[in-house]
Amino acid sequence: MYLLYLDESGNPDDASDQNFVLAGAAIFDRVTHFVSGALDDVQTKHFPGHAPIDFHATQMRSGQGFWRNVEKDKRTEILQDISSAIAGAQHRGVVLFASVVRKSSAVYGEDAVKRATEDITKRFDSYLKRRYREDNDPQRGLLIFAEGRFHERARLWVKDFRALGTQWGTISNLSDIPYFASAKETRLLQVADFVAHAVFLLYERNDPHLIKPILGRFDRQGGEIRGLTHLFAPVPCGCPACLDKQLRSKHPQNPANPWI
Ligand SMILES: [Zn+2]
Q1: Ligand 1 centroid, distance to 139 Cα (angstroms)
Q2: Ligand 1 mean position, distance from CA 211 (Å)
Q3: Which has the higher per-residue pLDDT, 260 or 202?
Q4: CA 184 to ligand 1 center in whole angstroms
Q5: pLDDT tens digits along 212-237
Q6: What would the pLDDT profile of 5-43 be if each residue is shown by its tens digit?
Q7: If you count Cβ atoms within 10 Å of the first and of the last residue's Cβ in the chain, which end, N or C, has fewer?
Q8: Which segment of 47-51, 144-148, 190-194 scores lowest on mean pLDDT?
Q9: What whole-number distance in Å separates Cα of residue 12 and Cα of residue 75?
């Protein structure tokens, strides 16, 4: 089974953010232990013997909470180490997904959250279908969301999730309703938080430094990026996902996407 750990970045209701991001990592059940251990190792390297520290990327970057007394260079190094841990995780055991919604007067708030959830759910389901079709490897999936700003309203969808899944098309490989957990309690939701933050920095701040090392870990089919989508993107858009589509339409054999 693959567990898709998801977190958000950007406030869907705040007009000062242009983008809302839902992102995370699909982790094969037998690999979860190793991914969690890789993040524990990052903590042990920098804070040996310390009680578990929540790796929350926004707080780490801006030096809030626990991170207020940690020097910027050290915080930067820890973020890079987390990025390396994700980039180096067992290849088929960890696959990244992100849906970026470019907000507008027509799409914002709960609608933006729902659009991103629909997109990422479908893409995860397609990934599982492909594993079966291409590798004869039947795997089921489960969604695990970080408790956050939208989780209360998302809880309401959970009751209707199967009906929503049907409206969204044929979501056939998910085992159960989505679950919610605190990112403080599991390193794997901290991975999702890191991925969401890295994607948000690229799209909102034009800052690719956190996403670049992990860009190759987003789901791809025959080289084509499937795990990263930019919904309602401006035209033209030079982001990794939009550029991939443009280059493939012109040069299907050799798209030479400079991002990957
Ligand atoms: Zn784009």
Answers
A1: 30
A2: 14
A3: 202
A4: 31
A5: 999 999 999 988 999 999 999 999 99
A6: 999 998 877 878 899 999 999 999 999 999 999 999 999
A7: N
A8: 144-148
A9: 27
Strand partners, 229: 99
Compute the distance from residue 105 Cα to the ligand 1 centre, in Å.
18
pTM of the shown model: 0.94
Q: What is the predicted pLDDT for the residue at 33?
A: 95
Give tens-digit pLDDT for 162-192: 777 767 777 778 888 888 898 888 999 999 9
Contact, 42 vs 54, CB < 8 A?
A: no
Task: Read off the amino acid at residue 35.
Answer: V
Distance 204 CA to ligand 1 centre (A): 11
Architecture of domain 2-232: 2-Layer Sandwich (3.30)
What are the sequence ranges of the domains in the chain? 2-232
Owner of token pair 């708030």: 109
Ligand 1 centroid, distance to 110 Cα (angstroms): 21
Q: How far is the CA of 218 from the centre of ligand 1 (A)?
A: 15
Token code pair at residue 55: 């790796």
Dist. CA 166–CA 66, nearest whole Å: 43
- Give me ligand 1 centre to Cα 242, in Å: 4
Q: Distance between CA 57 and CA 75 in Å, rounded?
A: 10
Q: Which residues lie at CB < 5 A from ion ligand 1? A: 230, 233, 237, 239, 242
